[in-house]
């Protein structure tokens, strides 16, 4: 059997002593955590290890001896080290010795109760203790759901080092009876800024929680639940986004400490995302209010709305004539065209009524961009929706008319063939009609059929316009979702401290010498950027697409109204 | 101890297989493909720049020339860093696992390590690709629930595509080490 020894590279130049760590018998491997130097009292060492075991729940024990002799190999020292094996009885007892500055160490194993007396091959794996301690091993994404206790042997090693943090807290300036060497034995480092931030965060969190509870209390009050207002809140995407951000703030300001890595990363991601969002929003706001750009924007808004209305009028005049050479039914054409023209006239008057107030409204609404870039984008999307409200109305009228016509046509077509739709049985049955029923039915069918091109053309034109507006709004929402869900903190961590997010390990074979054990260097293989985004994505409140392409086309053909964006809270209709 | 032998890949380009034995249970097998040739690089660059000069002669806008230079540089960087694989190697460490590395022309290395407990076997498979039958070496991963089933197949040497004679050498080396774990007493 092969014996694997995981040796921390920081202990390579440590003085002679005994090795403490964890022995994993299922994998026949020893994870060495630190070196205890002479002089020591064995009883105190055992006591110390017992305490460490109690606190960390890792079975730390004395695994072997380490001798680093600067001069020639001393015979008495090697006998002394062998005798230590009898005091700290551990099977197998590992002896590592380094001569001078040589890279090639000699390892030997003492087994008193060995079943097979053959020579065991030893593999020496060096690892960077600090990086392995701080790193978090991500299981492969498809096995994340199953119980992965024995799926990865390496996770046992990462786990051992990560949970032994208390062992690394004693440095060589401590006045204890035990002298250790590990990665932090030269002194525990800490940053004053981090400590100050930790102290300041507790009252800040409490204040934020109080303010948020006030705010959510106001939002939930009965005043805002009356019908027109609640309908308005549910339709405006700005309110959704503000609610979403409020939820995020509640997550950050909660007093509970994060239980595991995922929750910690989520909190950090939300915090960084909010920070960047607000920073970009304030940048946008300063750009808008400098040189009074928002005044210019308000000034151009009314002419743009007028221009759109004029273009629509031209379009309707074109439809009322002979559009693309098609011959329309004159009377129906005139009726529909005049109806829509009157609608546009109403809309223009409404816009002109509002025009003195537009600048002021826009000025105050623009101030809310300081709440974040996502809020500003949502406001833009809402403004577009409000300005193109008449297009939405036209679409609904055209769609309803067309839908009625299609249903009428299909029902009368069945009558034409002598069949009927049986509502009880949900199928088409044959039916005998009276002569006058047949006559009127056929007449109506003919009328509807010949009026179909006109209605269909109006429906087509307004559906295309509506789809254009929907696409523009959709792009804005896509951008908002991207800003909402991107895990920026995880990406920056992957860029700067890539060892913290580990997908696995990689081994590098170091120089070998015959007769000496195999030397490998274990390094951390960081998670790919795609993997980081997939693991740490923040959940958003909308999910699309609602319909597949086939059902969308079917709805368009039948004239049913389409609402492409579904929010998570909506019930299925 | 290292030895190098020359073989041919499935498409006929010369490749080299290098075997190193680091210890009784550790072997490294590296397949090196041909390097980037200067003549293909100059041919591609000249083609792009001739097209750019042609466009410049048509539209008299010097942006076309700077765009061509930019596109050439960007394309070269993307090709060297993401597409051109120089060397693919397999490091088999008995009782630890198998490590698969791809080294790109720009120096980037992408590594995957598969633990020995997950490896069921290393086999040579046949595949029908268009009108040819090609052989490829792959690692079979064990399903954690069912010891007889295979959960995943990891193909090796995808970009250098060695032929059967080279694959047999690699297969024999791997099997020698994998057999050791069967003869050694199994620990649960």
Account of the 3D structure:
The complex is a heterodimer of chains A (573) and B (188). Chain A has 573 residues and is α/β, with parallel strands linked by helices. Among the domains of chain A are: 179 residues, Cytidine Deaminase, domain 2, CATH 3.40.140; 98 residues, no CATH class. Chain A has 16 helices and 15 strands. Helices cover 34% and strands 40% of the residues of chain B. In chain B, a hairpin with a 2-residue loop joins β2 and β3. The interface between A and B is medium-sized, with 27 and 24 residues.
Instruction: Note the main sheet of chain A.
Output: 11 strands, mixed
- Walk across the major sheet of chain B and give the strand order: 1-2-3-4-5-6
> In angstroms, what separates the terminal alpha carbons of chain B?
34 Å
Secondary-structure element pattern of chain B, one letter each:
EEEHHEEEEEEH
Output the structural class of chain A: alpha/beta
Distance between the termini of chain A: 65 Å
Total strands of chain A:
15
How many β-strand stretches of chain B? Answer: 9
- Structural Rg of chain A: 38 Å
Largest sheet of chain B: 6 strands, antiparallel
Number of helices of chain A: 16
Query: Low-confidence runs of chain B (pLDDT<50, min 5 residues)?
Result: none
Query: What is the average of the pLDDT values of chain B?
Result: 89
Layout of strands and helices, then pairs:
The complex is a heterodimer of chains A (573) and B (188).
Chain A: E1 2-8, E2 17-24, E3 29-37, H1 42-56, E4 60-69, H2 75-87, E5 93-99, E6 106-110, E7 121-127, H3 129-134, E8 136-137, H4 154-163, E9 180-181, H5 192-219, H6 227-235, H7 237-252, H8 261-289, H9 293-320, H10 330-367, H11 373-387, H12 389-417, E10 419-422, E11 427-430, H13 435-485, H14 488-496, E12 501-509, E13 518-526, H15 529-536, E14 542-543, H16 549-558, E15 566-567
Helix pairs in contact in A: 5-7, 7-8, 7-11, 8-11, 9-10, 11-13, 12-13
Chain B: E1 2-8, E2 14-23, E3 26-32, H1 38-59, H2 63-83, E4 85-93, E5 97-104, E6 109-115, E7 119-129, E8 132-142, E9 150-155, H3 164-183
Antiparallel strand pairs in B: 1-2, 2-3, 3-4, 4-5, 5-6, 7-8, 8-9
């Amino acid at each position: 059997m092969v014996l694997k020894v995981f040796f921390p590279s920081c202990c390579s130049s440590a003085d002679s002593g005994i090795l403490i760590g964890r022995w994993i018998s299922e994998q026949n491997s020893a994870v060495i955590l630190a070196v205890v130097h002479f002089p020591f009292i064995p009883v105190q060492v055992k006591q110390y290890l017992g305490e460490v075991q109690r606190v960390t729940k890792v079975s730390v024990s004395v695994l072997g001896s380490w001798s680093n002799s600067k001069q020639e190999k001393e015979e008495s020292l090697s006998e002394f080290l062998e005798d230590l094996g009898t005091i700290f009885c551990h099977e197998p007892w590992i002896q590592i010795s380094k001569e001078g500055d040589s890279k090639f160490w000699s390892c030997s194993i003492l087994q008193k109760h060995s079943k097979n007396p053959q020579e065991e091959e030893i593999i020496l794996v060096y690892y960077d203790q600090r990086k392995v301690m701080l790193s978090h091993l991500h299981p492969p994404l498809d096995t994340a759901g199953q119980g992965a206790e024995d799926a990865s042997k390496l996770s046992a090693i990462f786990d051992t080092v990560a949970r032994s943090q208390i062992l690394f807290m004693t440095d060589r300036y401590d006045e204890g009876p035990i002298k250790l060497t590990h990665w932090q034995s030269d002194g525990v480092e800490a940053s004053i800024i981090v400590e100050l931030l930790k102290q300041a965060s507790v009252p800040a969190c409490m204040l934020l929680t109080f303010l948020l509870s006030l705010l959510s209390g106001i939002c939930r009050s009965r005043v805002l639940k009356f019908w027109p207002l609640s309908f308005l809140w549910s339709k405006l995407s700005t309110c959704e986004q503000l609610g979403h951000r409020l939820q995020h703030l509640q997550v950050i300001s909660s007093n509970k400490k994060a239980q595991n890595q995922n929750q910690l990363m989520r909190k950090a991601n939300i915090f960084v995302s909010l920070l960047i969002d607000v920073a970009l929003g304030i940048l946008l706001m300063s750009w808008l209010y400098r040189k009074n750009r928002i005044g210019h924007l308000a000034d151009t808004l009314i002419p743009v709305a007028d221009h759109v209305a004029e273009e629509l009028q031209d379009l309707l005049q074109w439809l009322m004539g002979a559009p693309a050479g098609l011959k329309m039914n004159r009377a129906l054409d005139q009726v529909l065209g005049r109806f829509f023209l009157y609608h546009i006239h109403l809309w223009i008057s409404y816009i002109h009524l509002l025009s003195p107030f537009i600048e002021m409204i826009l000025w105050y609404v623009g101030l809310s961009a300081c709440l974040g870039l996502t809020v500003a984008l949502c406001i833009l999307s809402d403004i577009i929706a409000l300005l193109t409200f008449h297009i939405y109305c036209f679409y609904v009228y055209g769609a309803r008319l067309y839908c009625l016509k299609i249903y009428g046509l299909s029902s009368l077509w069945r009558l034409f063939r002598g069949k009927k739709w049986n509502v009880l049985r949900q199928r088409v049955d044959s039916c005998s009609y009276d002569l006058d029923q047949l006559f009127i039915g056929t007449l109506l069918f003919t009328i509807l059929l010949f009026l179909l091109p006109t209605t269909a053309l109006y429906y087509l034109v307004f559906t295309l316009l509506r789809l254009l507006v929907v696409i523009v709004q959709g792009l804005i929402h896509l951008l908002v979702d991207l800003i909402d869900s991107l895990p920026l903190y995880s990406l920056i961590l992957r860029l700067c401290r890539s060892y913290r997010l580990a997908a696995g390990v990689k081994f590098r074979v170091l120089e070998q010498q015959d007769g000496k054990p195999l030397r490998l260097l274990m390094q951390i293989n960081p998670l790919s950027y795609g993997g980081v985004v997939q693991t740490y994505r923040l959940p958003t409140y909308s999910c699309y697409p609602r319909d597949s392409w086939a059902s969308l086309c079917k709805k368009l053909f039948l004239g049913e109204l389409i609402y492409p964006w579904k929010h998570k809270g909506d019930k299925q209709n | 101890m290292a030895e190098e032998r020359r073989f041919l890949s499935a498409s006929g380009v010369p490749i080299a297989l290098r075997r190193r034995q680091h210890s009784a249970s550790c072997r490294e097998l590296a397949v090196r493909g041909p390097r980037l040739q200067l003549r293909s690089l100059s041919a591609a660059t000249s083609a792009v720049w001739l097209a750019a000069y042609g466009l410049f002669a048509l539209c008299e806008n010097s942006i076309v020339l700077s765009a061509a230079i930019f596109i050439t540089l960007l394309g070269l960087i993307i090709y060297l860093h993401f597409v051109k694989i120089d060397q693919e190697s397999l490091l088999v460490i008995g009782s630890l696992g198998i490590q698969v590395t791809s080294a790109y022309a720009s120096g980037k290395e992408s590594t995957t390590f598969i633990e020995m407990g997950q490896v069921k076997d290393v086999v040579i498979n046949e595949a029908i690709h268009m009108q040819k039958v090609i052989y490829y070496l792959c690692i079979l991963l064990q399903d954690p629930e069912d010891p007889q089933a295979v959960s995943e197949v990891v193909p090796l040497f995808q970009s250098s595509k060695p032929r059967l004679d080279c694959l047999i050498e690699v297969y024999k080396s791997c099997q020698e080490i994998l057999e050791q774990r069967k003869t050694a007493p199994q620990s649960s």
